[in-house]
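I'm stuck. Protein, please.
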Amino acid sequence: GRSRSCEKLHKMWFFLGLAAVAVMAVPYLILGEDAVFTYHDQLDGEMIAYILQAKYLFRGDILPEFMGGMSKTALTLPAPGFVALFLTGNYFAALLSMQLIGSLTGYLGIYLLAREAGVYGGIAAATAVLFAYLPFLPVYGLSQYGIPLLFWCVLQLKRKRRMAVSYLYIAWYALTSSLVLVGFGLLGMGVLWLLWLFWKQRESVFSFLGAWLLLLGIYMAENCRLLGELLGLGGAQVSHKAEYVLAADSFFSALWQNLTKGGQHSEDYHFFLLAAALIAAAAGFALREKHVRRLQGIVGICLLWNLFFSVLAALWDCGLGVSVRSRMDAFRAFQADRLLWIAPVFWYLAFACGVMICMELLLHQGRKPAVLLLILIMGGGFAGAGLQILLAGDVKSNIQKLRNPDYGLLSYRDYYGIGVMDQVESFLRETEGREQSEYKVVSLGIDPAAALYHGFYCLDGYSNNYPLDYKHSFRKVLAPELERNEYLRDYFDGWGNRCYLFSSECPGYYTIEKGGFYFQDYRMDVAALKELGGDYLLSAAYIANGEEQGLVLLNENPLETEGSYYRIYVYKVH
C-alpha cells in the first residue's frame, strides 16, 4: 500500500511539472505574431534556413532566393527533422511548436534521469521544470533540450530495458539535432562510453554500439553534402571561412567562463546550483548510507564531465589552440566550445542529486540546525537559478508584452516586417510590373531575413558557409562604407557571416525603427551592386544622397502600417 501511494505521489509531481512547462506556451498563443522571440541567431538565420529548405525540400541543390542563389549547404538545418513543421507555411506556429516540443522533451529527460538516480519525484519534477525553462533557442531543435532523454535511453540500453523505445528516440534525436553543433561531442562521448563498456561490461557493448552507429549513420546521411564540402570532395568551392580571423582567449579566463557560465547559446545559469550541489555532496559524508554514496558518485561524475568539456573548450580557444586551428583549413572555424551544450544536463542532474542528499540528511539526522541550513542553501540555489532563468528568457518578455503592448523589444511581427513587406511586393508588382522571381533586392537598416521571409530574391543574407568569391564580390559593394569605419571593416573582413549592407552612420545596427533617423551620407558602389545582379534597395530610412549614389527613389511616401516597426523606402538601382 505504501509503495502504491508513493507511486501515485511521484505521478502527481510529474504531471504538475508537465503542466508548469505547458503553461509557457500561453503568452505566445495569446500574443500570436506579436510575441517576442530572440532574433539573434534565430529569426535572422536559422528560421530562414527552415523556410527555404522546406520550400525546396527534395528539389535540387540550390536556394534561388538566398544570396543570389546559394547551395543548400549555405543554410544547413540545425534540426533537419523539424523542417516538416514548416511545410504548412505557418512559420510562427512551427517555431512555437519547436519551443514546446523542446521544453517538454527536456523536462521528461531530466525527470527520468533524476528518477533513475534515485531522486524523489517532487525534486526531480522541480529540477526538470527549471531545465525546461532554460532559454535555449528553439530553432536548434532537440540539440540541447533532447540530451537528457538521450542519456536516459543509453542507460536503458546498458540495462537491456525498453530497447525499442530507446532506439526509436535515438533515431529521432539524430533527426532533430545538429551534428555540427552538438552531435560531434555526443559521438565522442559515445566512443569513450564504448571503451568503458568493453573494459567493464562487455555484455552491454553491442546494444550500445548499435545505438552509436544509428546516431552516426543518420548524422552522416543528413550532412553528406556539408561533409563533402569540408573534405574538398566534388570540386567544392573555397568557403568564406578561409578568411576567418581567429582571436585567442586567455586559457584560465576561458576555463572560468566555461565552468561558471557556459558557452555561446548554452548559458544555463547553473552557478547557484553548482555551489549548492557541491555543499550538499560534501555534507553527505556525514551519512554512511549506500544510497547517499551513490548520489555523491553521480555528482562527482557530472562535475568531472563538465570539467573535461570546459578544459577542452578553453584549450581550443587559447593561444595554443588558435595557432593549431590556423593550420586546419576547413576546420579552422570549428567551435569546440559547442561541447558546453552538453554541460547543462550534468549541472542540473548534479543539483537534483544534491537536494536528494539533503533529504536523506533530514530523514536520518532530523531537524538539526546544520541540516536546516543546508536545505535553505539548496532552496536558495533553486530560487536564484529560477529567477535568473525567468529574467533571461523570452517567457518574461512575453508576459511584459501582455501587460504592456508597447513593450520595447522587437516582436516576431516587427522583425519580419509583416504587413509592410507585403506592401513592398505589391508596390513593385504594380509600379514596375515585376514578380519577385524577376528581380533581386538588398536591404539597408532592415535585416535581410525580413525580405527572405516574404519570398524576395536577395543578394544579402546571414550564412556561416558560403563561397569566398561571393564575399569578395559583395565587399566591392560595401567598400566605401567599410573604409570609413574600422569596426565594420574588421567585422566583415575578419568574419563575414553577415553579408549585409552596413552603414558607418549606425554601425552594429541591422534594424532601424521608423522615426527621425535618415542616412545623410551613405556610400556604396552601385556599379558593383548592379554587376552582382541588384535591382532594388529596400531601406528603413531615407537616403539623402541616394541620387548621387545612383539610387532612384520610387516612393516619396514610405510604405508602413500604423503599428509597424519599419518604414520602407524602395530605391531602384540605376
The chain has a mean pLDDT of 91. The radius of gyration is 26 Å. The first helix runs from residue 2 to 22.
